[in-house]
UniProtKB/TrEMBL annotation:
<keyword id="KW-0689">Ribosomal protein</keyword>
<dbReference type="GO" id="GO:1990904">
    <property type="term" value="C:ribonucleoprotein complex"/>
</dbReference>
<protein>
    <recommendedName>
        <fullName>Large ribosomal subunit protein bL33c</fullName>
    </recommendedName>
</protein>
<dbReference type="GO" id="GO:0009507">
    <property type="term" value="C:chloroplast"/>
</dbReference>
<dbReference type="InterPro" id="IPR011332">
    <property type="entry name" value="Ribosomal_zn-bd"/>
</dbReference>
<comment type="similarity">
    <text>Belongs to the bacterial ribosomal protein bL33 family.</text>
</comment>
<dbReference type="InterPro" id="IPR038584">
    <property type="entry name" value="Ribosomal_bL33_sf"/>
</dbReference>
<keyword id="KW-0150">Chloroplast</keyword>
<keyword id="KW-0934">Plastid</keyword>
<keyword id="KW-0687">Ribonucleoprotein</keyword>
<dbReference type="GO" id="GO:0005840">
    <property type="term" value="C:ribosome"/>
</dbReference>
<dbReference type="InterPro" id="IPR018264">
    <property type="entry name" value="Ribosomal_bL33_CS"/>
</dbReference>
<dbReference type="GO" id="GO:0006412">
    <property type="term" value="P:translation"/>
</dbReference>
<dbReference type="InterPro" id="IPR001705">
    <property type="entry name" value="Ribosomal_bL33"/>
</dbReference>
<dbReference type="GO" id="GO:0003735">
    <property type="term" value="F:structural constituent of ribosome"/>
</dbReference>
<dbReference type="Pfam" id="PF00471">
    <property type="entry name" value="Ribosomal_L33"/>
</dbReference>
Length: 66
């Protein structure tokens, strides 16, 4: 079995709450995480619930383009 193209790719997860509050300037920054996903198992955009140090709570972090 030959290895094909890279199946596991690195993705950047960004806090959805901080992005919305960026207009209001309520948050100090935008929380980002780097993780890997398998393209065959999850072809759609990845969304995980992670801790945001700027919002001080667990929020949904969605995948962004590089």
């Amino acid at each position: 079995m030959a290895k094909g193209k890279n199946v596991r790719v690195k993705v950047i997860l960004e806090c959805n709450s901080c992005v919305r509050n960026d207009i209001n300037k309520e948050s100090r920054g935008i929380s980002r995480y780097i993780t890997q996903k398998n393209r065959h198992n999850t072809p759609s955009r990845l969304e995980l619930r992670k801790f945001c140090p700027y919002c001080y709570k667990h929020t949904i972090h969605g995948e962004i383009k590089k």
